[in-house]
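Chain A, query sequence.
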Amino acid sequence: MDVLRAIHGGLIVSCQALEDEPLHGPMLMAAMARAVHLGGAAGIRANGRHDVEVIKRMTGLPVIGIHKATNGQGEMAITPFFSLAQDLVEAGADIVAVDVRSSRPFGDPLEELLPRIRQELGVLVMADCATMEDARAAAQIGVDIIASTFGFRQGDFGAEPDFSLLEEMLQLPVPVIAEGGFWYPEQVMQALEMGVWSVVVGSAITRPLEITKRFVRACQRVQAAGK
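Chain A, predicted structure.
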């Protein structure tokens, strides 16, 4: 399968649930992935070996595998070690996403980790960025995809896409996947019309807890304004 071609111009759905959320677990996430597959998703982003394995088997779609790891201080990094990337590939991931933020709290050195994943595991590597500087550094080391994963803005009701960051990233000679804060089809259309390779949508589709919070915030704002 030409993975990049398969996801080009399409919707990638992030099927994830944190450990403290009711939908956490491979079977529930696999059911979610099956639903978005039936809805026409071009690919899935999934967290952890078990979720990747079940989702890949159930859908057959291209899977972006990640492993969210935390340290003793509660800081998070995405696929910070080669061993975690290897687990994801063995589970069936077609693309491995790696946290490339300059503020990444821990992990193997990126100049060693990124090429090692590409060369030894034979999969595409996606750089999860927060800033244009992150994207430039990753492109210089060598990656297959740049993503705006951490580069979102905070709006009235939560995260929103940073289209100015996407515009800058599109100047790099690497496919750009838009991710972070997408809640409306119009936002997805805008990103694709700008020239991004594809768009990842997560919470707006697969996290009812976060969806509910946004609607509750809207109700609370009206109540507050009426006092």
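Residues 100 and 137 are 8 Å apart (CA to CA). The chain has ten helices and twelve strands.
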